[in-house]
Amino acid sequence: MFPKKPVIQSIELARQTPGFDTRAYDDALRGSGEALAWLVARYRDGGLPLLQLPGRRDDLAAIREAGGKLAAGATDIVILGTGGSSLGGQTLAQLAGHAVPGIGALRAGPRLHFMDNLDPESYSALLANLPLATSRFVAISKSGGTGETLMQTAAALAAVRDAGLGARIPELFLGLTEPAKGGKRSGLRVLCDEYRIAMLDHDTGVGGRYSVLTNVGLLPAAALGLDVGAIRSGANNALAPVLLGHPPAEVPAAVGAALSIAIGKPIAVMMAYADKLERFTRWYVQLWAESLGKEGKGTTPIGAIGPVDQHSQLQLYIAGPRDKLFTILTTGAAGRGPRIASDLAQLVGEPDFAGKTMGDLVAAQGRATAETLAKNGCPVRTIHIPSIDEASIGELLMHFMLETIIAAHLMGVDAFDQPAVEEGKVLAKKYLTDGA
After folding, report:
1. In Å, what is the CA distance from 107 to each residue of 98, 112, 352?
2. Buried/exposed 197-219: b ≥16 CB within 10 Å, e otherwise
3. d(Cα 226, Cα 287) in Å, to the nearest integer?
4. Beta strands 380-385 and 8-10: pairing type?
5. Distance (Å, rounded) from C-alpha 7 to C-alpha 238?
6. Could you report the per-residue pLDDT of 263-295, keeping only the tens digit for each?
7. 3-state DSSP call for residue 269?
8. Which residues are designated catalytic?
């Protein structure tokens, strides 16, 4: 039923940290049992649709078809959506080289543009330089009322009209939002209906930051030719020990949540040793921050990439305040990449480089960083992914969604709302109307 487990988590370095409170950890792990029971109950009664997604296959054909239509004849695909409507898609798109330093601009088309931030300069430049006749626009908003997305969509529609392509708008645009509620259409639906733009339904029971396994995240992945079924299968692997009723100590997500609570550090650093995991760290930051930061509770997540951030942040991490829990995420880099010639190794004064690959050095650095942090009294969890592929990323995403939900239960907060964010949205629209 479930694939072989590819992701390996260890908290042994954290347990060896001076002052590690074994009783607090055991209490937190025991308390996570209630969250696991709640998750199983919600799976059985359908009360948390997120839990049904890993095992679903009935919607994948439609997602693949929509992704194929987007890519057909397109030089560029522009994804309009912010936060959870974008970060999951970006995380998966990096598997196909999107936004990967050095190769992102060299990968075969279509080119993807995730316009997740509202910036007048960059968006104007995009519209001015895109080949509009061969570009596709996808507007994503769960509520259909996200101000940034509505403004971007309206601007793109105007640009296409002004370019004399008005008759092709139904072909060039796609919308993704919740179905109309009580006969009332959202702003995005009104806009798309007016221009006969096809609409896909956003799952009403899955919030934006948890939507990566829905068509929100899988549509861009399908457009790039990624195996969306394997992504779901990997997610199913992370969910398996929960549904099979394993004790908390045998559920990696419960172990991770319990560690976070027991350590009690106000900052959580996610340091991934691979360029293709950079957007994953951003996705994690939103998920953790927006789900847990409530009622004066929560921890501040920080994303980092290795080895580069060893040169910009590691000094602070090792010699600065002991206020952080570290997750070091490594991959099967050893033996991969260019192999260094012996004469060149001698020439640069590093004879030990001879015969070694670039991946050998990255693997050594990841291990060294984790052990150096631990030796300096910093609690460290390690997660290892043998390969960066659809299944492993699917498992990683589901793991952290589960870990976040369990941590929220242990903190006593609602993992699914974001009242402070909603307040800011209301004020922003007021100031825009007032001309402030």
Report:
1. 8, 10, 33
2. bebbebbeebbbbbbbbbbbbbb
3. 23
4. antiparallel
5. 9
6. 999 999 999 999 999 999 999 999 999 999 999
7. strand
8. 290, 311, 425
Closest to 85 measured CA to CA, from 278, 214, 181, 171: 214
- The answer, yes or no, to whether the previous bond of 307 is cis (omega within 30 of 0) is yes
**Which residues are CB-neighbours of 161 under 8 A, at least 6 positions away?**
169
- Locate tokens 């903190």: which residue? 411
Compute the radius of gyration of the chain from its Cα atoms.
23
Strands 324-331 and 173-177: unpaired
Indicate the helix (H) or strand (E) that contains 240: helix 228-243
Q: Residue 9: what residue type?
A: Q
Kindly report, residue by residue over 2-27, the tens digit of the pLDDT: 444 578 999 999 999 999 999 999 99
Closest to 3 in 3D by CA, of 227, 206, 226: 227
- What is this structure's pTM? 0.95
CA 262 vs CA 21, 302, 322, 339, 356: distances in Å: 7, 19, 15, 43, 40
